Amino acid sequence: MPVYSYKGKTIFGKVKRGKVTADNIDMAKNLIRNKGIVYIESVKEEKSSGLNMEINLSFMDRVKLKDIVLFTRQLYSMINAGIPLVSALRALEQQVSNRKLKEIIKDVAKEVEEGGKFSAALAKHKDVFGDLYISMIKAAEEAGTLDTTLKRLAEYLEKIEHLRSKVKSAMFYPTFVLIIATIIVSGILIFVIPTFANIYKDLGGQLPTLTQIVINISNFLRDYIGWMIGALVVFIIAFKQLLKIDKVRYYFDMFMLKIPIFGDLILKSSIANFARTLSSMVSSGINILKALDIAAETSNNKIIQEEIKKVKDQVERGISLAVALSRSKIFPPMLINMVAIGEDAGNLDEMLGKVADFYEEEVDTMVDGLTSLIEPLMMVFIGGIIGFIIIAMYLPIFKMGSLLK
Fold first, then answer.
1. Which fold has domain 162-405?
2. What is the pLDDT of residue 75?
């Protein structure tokens, strides 16, 4: 099928260049117009070459949270500027770089253009946008506050992304340093130690215990390193599959919450996420029971998720949210007290927002403190291991007389 390159302008006057595949030039022009190009300057058929090959890498175009954040922020700006929803979506379709999101926006725009609701169109891509996003858009359509809700959604998603990145960086940093340390130490044991071992073997005699231990470890790694890497890969794959089982994930999340320092960090980030989610949904006019349902689904920790579901069941029976939260051992007193004040004053969303702000700041402080603490500890740990190896391998030199025969 022929490939046509084109040049044209969007409704905003922005110059766009690209390529489309079509049976003929008329079909190519139609496809170009569907991309939001209102003025086509040129369309040329490209000469095919035996070396030209299009590789489909769409499986790599996973839609990330930051892509949704950018889409929401840009859509809010356009809607707030008075641009019709369909036109805004068509314009965004041309701007996003993620191919999967581009196709989703195209499908949503087509649905809305044909008279469908924006929320209903988004619901067809629930795996990308999620219940919270769709529910807030649906409530906004009913209330006629789409621009305000999009702004609130953008701010919510930005804060959630910031929170997740903070927690990930706190967990990733020590893991990364440990991996690098393992590679360095393994390299020394596999490539450097054998040289010393051969020298000492030629000398003969009895090696010191520490030296012999290091040489034995080196020999073991050289003989079984391939098997060890293979076993590690199998373990990681099997572990990921096991985590898909609810009961296994429940006990794993319980274990994570009990890890010193890191468990507290995970709990505070989960509380911040819960409070922020609930605040955003309540402020959008969503029923508290529906909001709790979605807050449970968006929680990344099974323990927190189960506790939120218990709270929801109690609220459904007529118990106040503050009392229901107080019956759980997970939720901190500050959250409970602020919710009680919010329920009495009629500004629950505002109080939950303040709780989220507080715990997000707590997470930031903890991550900064952990980073500054872990860095020197890791350096001492790595230096200690390498120092041990060096001492073990140079120890025979101090006993050279006993090694010589």
1. Receptor-associated Protein (1.20.81)
2. 92
